[in-house]
Write a structure and sequence with these properties.
The structure holds two protein chains of two kinds. Chain A is of the alpha/beta class. Among the domains of chain A are: about 15-255, no CATH class; about 445-505. By secondary structure, chain B is an alpha/beta fold. In chain B, the strands form two sheets. Chain B has a seven-stranded mixed sheet, sandwiched between helices. In chain B, helix 2 (about 40-60) crosses helix 11 (about 300-320), helix 3 packs parallel to helix 4 and helix 5 (about 145-160) packs across helix 6 (about 175-190). The chains are: A alpha/beta, B alpha/beta.
Chain lengths: ~625, ~375
């Protein structure tokens, strides 16, 4: 544990700066080598990159592909144009625009700032609904958002000119401004990704139920990302508008969003590096194909005109990436900067002394349509000991754990911890109350590293980043995964994944830890090792562990107290010795017909329960 | 990943290097911003076909002014303003000699605000909004302007004895907004009265509400005038005739397409303006035959021949300037006196760079375009842009 290391505190910043340096060097090289056309291409690249990064801030961290960000760009472009144009020019271009709305000839920087404010406000208003949705629902919602904003802006002809060109906008976005903006956007996007909200949102992206069970509110995290990305997109729109000098609302509609999303997906949606690479590659493809679409003669070969070729080419490129490299051409890793890892600082002492905390389950019932999964189950589980929860398959063990942790609300009864009534609490509220869990089917955050998986719950409970990293290092050491800290979680072997889930739950500093089949799939050596690591936790940290497992030997060897469920009802509880002699338990495991024989050979049955050799169900 | 990156980067550099280089010394480089996909494609495609056909012909005889081979830099704007603007900047950066813009006023104005300060003459393929030249001194029209067409059509409507008119506009384009307004001005100046108007959104699928509005007029108007184009005009005329409304309809030069003429009974008798008509034995008819023989395509709209006339205007300006210098050619073009074209003659001198050209009045009969007459608008009766 003393050898545990954590990433350098400047790691993310160093990688962000490296990316900025690479981008600026590339931009400068293109501008110098290709002269004016190169400057134009480099400027457009920087503006496109800003827009793609704005989308990536939301989509890359939330996993929701946004088709709505060009709506922010549209609004940002008009807002900035209104306030930066001279009144006379604005009067010619938009004669019906109310005078107070524009013509102030503000500097471009103030136009950008105002666009950001309006974009953030629009994002906050729309995000209250959109951020509640994830996956395909969220993507469709963003599309609806774009359609609404576009329709309103195109219909507001006195404000926008409708679909007639709004021209005369100061063309202030030159290469240097665009490059500076791209550098700023890169820093913001990269630091946001590895920051508190970005990390928690990426965890929810990878596995929302697990994130919620660690106290993360995915909707709130998505809202934060949506607002930040909305502000950034509005600024990108303003930059775009001041680069073009003329546009209509239609210029921010499907064609633009398709191009930007293609850039993000081709490079890799999950990383800032992917956004940079995708933007460069798709733009190179577009620029190249634009020169071919009017027909070209290469020596003896003449290619006919094929207008629309760039759109077709980009579509095919995106399709190919989705088919053959779904994570994007640049994968899931950011451009690395090899700063040395630091020795982990002393983490805060584990939360202990939960003392007399008790988890009280009172006449709990749960029905799925006509099926009774739990019926009047009552139990009191104290902190400071390991309580086993056993029963044949279908007994209701996982249903009980889900009800306690808020993932499947009970239909009757109460669940309390101290003065807190958790009966109908959300998973995140249960987590904040001090109950953590692992899952029967492993639910890791596959896109995060091992140490990020464990740092997430520490961040979720408000610990500073450095302390969260140190806490993660401590818990990883506790489960024997310290040397795997920097590896992707998805790369771990099965048994190690089980242990990682336990470390992650421990980093939440729970009062009660509910482990749902933690030894499932482990070999005997791994199971014994896990038992060793769990055995002292109640005494060391004062926490209560509820252990569900089909390996009865593992359960009986670890638990001070065992609860037995069968067909949704609590049929026995007591010490392992008391339970294994209980006739109801024998019957539950061996069946009614066999129970008569079993009673006659109780000693053998007891031995079977104790050693876990019995067949379940 | 590295392999992908290397290949993509190499391809990008090769393509860029091969195509983004500046003009060769002897070449006359024309940047052509077509709109061959998107909403303007029905007008851009034939215009570009005619232009390209004549470029090839001219190159075969030595090029512009007989001595400068023409090289085209062709980009498709997809009918988007933003793309047009980007290409305008690209054309300026690579130093083209002349620019041809999409066949609509809005993208032409958007491009012109960039190309005109760079003193590169920029001519629209077929944009007719007379305000399009207001963005700069190097922006040019090529087709009879909306107010020229309105001066002819409005007077003709009054001549037919129509007393009242209904105008159908769309604020989505200067053409669809101001064309009917110019018509109304001329019509009222000739004793008519505009008794109502309605507004539509481009690509609006349902015109039943507008048709109901027209049906509710009592007495009904004598004529309906619109500058709607495809697909809005077909949708409107079908809804109108489908509702049993037989009020005569007049339109602008955008109705001069085979698609509109092919709509059948619903467009029978529709009167519209046009830039020309291929009278038998005329240069226009001879061009159409030559074009069809060479390309296999029928020149069934005037945008084809106008594309060729645009090249003729450039050639005349270069010869008048005695140089290929962009600014000098632009100034020479603005001062061109009446010059013979294929579709019709054109005069830039004394105009605000929207050429004076004769306007054809045509009627659709049996799916064919039938000429009513050809006349030059009287500047005194043309509404101000």
């Amino acid at each position: 544990m003393t050898d545990a290391t954590v990433p350098h505190p400047w790691q993310a910043a160093a990688e962000a700066l490296l990316l900025v340096a690479v981008v600026l060097a590339g931009v400068l090289a293109v501008a110098v080598v290709f002269g004016l056309p190169g400057q134009r291409a480099a400027t457009l690249f920087c503006v496109n990159l800003c827009a793609v990064l704005a989308i990536q801030v939301f989509s890359g961290t939330s996993g929701v592909v946004s088709f709505g960000h060009t709506a922010f760009m549209l609004v940002g472009a008009y807002v900035s144009a209104w306030v930066t144009m001279p009144a006379t020019m604005l009067g010619r271009s938009l004669p019906e625009l109310p005078g107070w709305m524009g013509g102030y000839e503000l500097p471009g920087s103030l136009g950008l700032l105002l666009a950001a404010v309006v974009g953030a406000a629009l994002a906050l208003g729309s995000g209250l609904a959109i951020a509640r949705l994830s996956g395909a629902s969220g993507a469709i919602a963003t599309l609806g958002f774009l359609i609404i904003v576009y329709t309103v802006m195109a219909a507001a002809q006195h404000l926008t000119g409708g679909n007639r060109a709004f021209w005369g906008i100061p063309r202030t976005t030159d290469l240097w401004i665009a490059a500076a903006a791209a550098a700023g956007f890169l820093l913001v996007a990269r630091l946001f990704r590895d920051g508190r909200t970005g990390l928690m949102l990426r965890a929810a992206r990878d596995n929302e139920p697990a994130a919620r069970a660690l106290g993360i509110d995915p909707g709130r995290m998505r809202l934060r990302a949506w607002v930040l990305s909305g502000a950034l997109a509005a600024m990108a729109g303003a930059l775009y508008g001041h680069m073009l000098g003329a546009f209509t609302p239609r210029d921010f509609y499907f064609d633009l969003v398709f191009g930007l999303v293609a850039m993000m997906i081709v490079g890799g949606m999950g990383t800032v590096t992917g956004a940079v690479g995708g933007t460069a590659l798709v733009m190179a493809l577009q620029e190249g194909l634009q020169r071919l679409e009017g027909g070209v003669t290469l020596g003896p070969v003449s290619l006919p005109a094929l207008f629309g070729l760039p759109t077709v080419g980009v579509s095919l490129a995106m399709l190919a990436v989705l088919l053959f490299r779904p994570a994007g051409l640049f994968g899931r890793r950011e451009l690395p900067f090899p700063l040395p890892r630091r020795r982990a600082p002393p983490p805060p002492a584990p939360v202990s002394g939960a003392g007399g905390a008790r988890l009280v389950i009172d006449r709990l019932g749960k029905q799925f349509a006509g099926l009774v999964a739990l019926q009047d189950v009552s139990a009191t589980i104290p902190a400071g000991r390991i309580t086993g929860l056993i029963g044949p398959n279908g007994a209701g063990k996982s249903t009980l754990v889900n009800a306690v942790t808020g993932l499947g609300a009970a239909t009757s009864g109460r669940i309390t911890m101290g003065s807190s009534d958790l009966t109908h609490a959300t998973p995140e509220r249960v987590a904040r109350a001090g109950i953590a869990r692992s899952f029967q089917n492993i639910r890791l955050f596959g896109g995060l590293s091992v140490e990020e998986n464990v740092a997430v719950p520490a961040l979720a409970r408000g610990l500073p980043a450095a302390v969260a990293r140190a806490t993660a290092a401590r818990e990883l050491a506790h489960v024997g995964l310290a040397s795997d800290a920097a590896r992707p979680a998805a790369a771990l072997a099965y048994g190690a994944r089980r242990r990682l889930e336990i470390a992650r739950a421990l980093a939440a500093a729970p009062v009660f830890l509910l482990l749902d089949e933690p030894a499932a799939g482990m070999n005997p050596e791994e199971t014994a090792d896990l038992a060793t690591r769990l055995r002292d936790l109640p005494a060391d940290r004062g926490i209560g562990i509820v252990l569900i497992d089909h390996d009865l030997g593992f359960v009986m060897g670890l638990c001070n107290h065992v609860i037995v469920l069968n067909r949704g009802q609590l049929i026995a509880e007591g010490t392992p010795a008391e339970v294994q002699g209980h006739p109801g338990v024998i019957e539950a495991y061996l069946g009614t017909r066999a129970s008569g024989v079993a009673r006659a050979t109780m000693t053998e049955a007891e031995h079977s329960i104790a050693t876990g050799e019995m067949q379940h169900g | 990943m590295d392999r992908y990156c290397r290949r993509a980067g190499a391809l990008a550099l090769a393509v860029t290097a091969a195509t983004a280089t500046g003009a060769l010394a002897q070449d006359y480089v024309i940047g052509v911003a077509v709109a061959n996909s998107g909403g303007l494609a029905p007008f851009s495609q034939p215009a570009y076909d005619g232009f390209k056909f004549c470029v090839d012909e001219m190159n075969a005889s030595g090029g512009i002014a007989g001595k400068h081979p023409i090289r085209l830099e062709v980009r498709d704007t997809r009918s988007e303003i933003s793309e047009a603007v980007k290409f305008a900047q690209e054309f300026v950066d690579i130093g083209v000699n002349f620019i041809v813009a999409p066949p609509d006023g809005d993208p032409t104005m958007a491009m012109g605000q960039i190309t005109s300060p760079a003193q590169i003459p920029t001519m629209t393929f077929a944009g007719t909004a007379p305000i399009l030249t207001s963005v700069g001194e190097y922006v040019f029209g090529s087709y009879p302007a909306d107010n020229q067409q309105a001066a002819v059509l409005g007077a003709y409507a009054a001549e037919l004895g129509y007393k009242t008119a209904f105008l159908l506009k769309s604020p989505d384009a200067a053409y669809t907004q101001f064309g009917p307004a110019y018509f109304g001005t001329v019509f009222e100046a000739n004793g008519g009265q505009v008794v109502g108007e309605a507004s539509f959104t481009m690509n609006q699928p349902d015109f039943s509400a507008i048709v109901t509005t027209i049906q509710a007029l009592n007495p009904p108007p004598d004529v309906i005038m619109t500058s709607a184009w495809e697909p809005d005009f077909p949708a409107f005329i079908k809804a109108l005739r489908g509702a049993g409304v037989t009020i005569p309809v007049m339109g602008a030069d955008v109705l001069d397409t085979p698609t509109v003429r092919g709509l059948g009974e619903v467009v029978e008798g529709v009167v519209h303006t046009s830039g020309g008509y291929p009278d038998p034995g005329s240069a226009h008819a001879e061009f159409n035959a030559r074009f069809e023989a060479a390309t296999g395509k029928v020149a069934d709209t005037n945008y084809v021949v106008n594309g060729c006339d645009i090249l003729g205007m450039i050639d005349a300006a270069v010869q008048a300037a005695g140089t290929t210098d962009a600014a000098a050619v632009g100034q020479a073009l603005a001062a061109l006196p009446e010059t013979e074209g294929i579709m019709s003659s054109y005069t830039f001198a004394g105009t605000d760079r929207m050429p004076m050209r004769s306007v054809v009045l045509a009627r659709i009969e049996g799916g064919e375009k039938v000429i009513i007459r050809r006349e030059m608008a009287d500047p005194a009766t043309m509404p101000a842009p």
